[in-house]
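Per reviewer request, we include the raw input and output of the structure prediction for the construct analysed in the revised manuscript.
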Amino acid sequence: MPFEKSEYSVTNTAPQTKTEPSLDSLIDLVDADMKRVNQVIIDNMHSEVALIPQLATHLVAAGGKRMRPMLTLASAQLCGYGDGPDAVDLAACVEFIHTATLLHDDVVDESLLRRGQASANALFGNEASVLVGDFLFARAFVVMVKTGSLRVLDILAQASAVIAEGEVLQLSTANDMGTSEESYLEVITAKTAALFGAASQIGAVIANRSPEDEEALRLYGIYLGTAFQLIDDVLDYSAHQATLGKTVGDDFRDGKVTLPVIISYAKGDADEKAFWRRCMEDQDFKDGDLDRAQELIRKYNALDASMDRAREFGQMAIETLTCFEDGPIKDAMIEAVEFCISRPY
């Protein structure tokens, strides 16, 4: 889908009394339901095959912000959904789908760390990780069917398909320095933002809100997810490993052509372009290449430019909420956007 740049800056929307946006308000507002979500997850990880709950428990213990299920709960609250079980069950479904994609991602990327701990594939092997990922996908749809909503089933099934397409598309753009910003955004919209969008949209569906409200929340999630991934890609070239939760430079070593690289390559001279092609396309690495990549990215202010792009998407996310009634949950969803784009780099 096309994206238009916003003339505003997210930083203009932050309350003047706050210096550090956080997820605390959102976490507090959905805390009771998130406890129920965690119980649904635990209840549906049982299997007579011992490795399945063992590996799944490792993933749950690894933590994470649980942004996607929180968005389902928050969107349902924003739309006036009551105390029924559907929001909790669907938030658990969203987390199952997300966790399954993480398992598959780490196998494809040969990642050794996830959220600062050993990845599941590093501990249990690729075969087990892929198959337990499949198990979690199946569990998601088992729980989903309990809601009886074909509309919800369609949204989450479509999102799951789009995520898989995004992974394949990323493989086709990897190691290709001809990748454009448009192609890059297409990848992260499918790979990351699609589930953010679906997680937010289904909150409106179960509350029986209008198609316009559904679309507003879908776009909120899409724009937030895009900003979130842009920041992740910035952190890969800037953060300390403890902050990032994975090995710094993983994207560089994997030949993933992300926005900081696209910007640096476009502005580089012939020698610098040759460097990027050697590393990203030929996967021919030498000592000090990551340092040089970071140096070139700094030289052309590619991190700042990528951050500016993330802020544009963040502002668009905030603007989608204007049609909803003001209140604590709306404020928390706005602050969640500000938090995502204020992560240190």
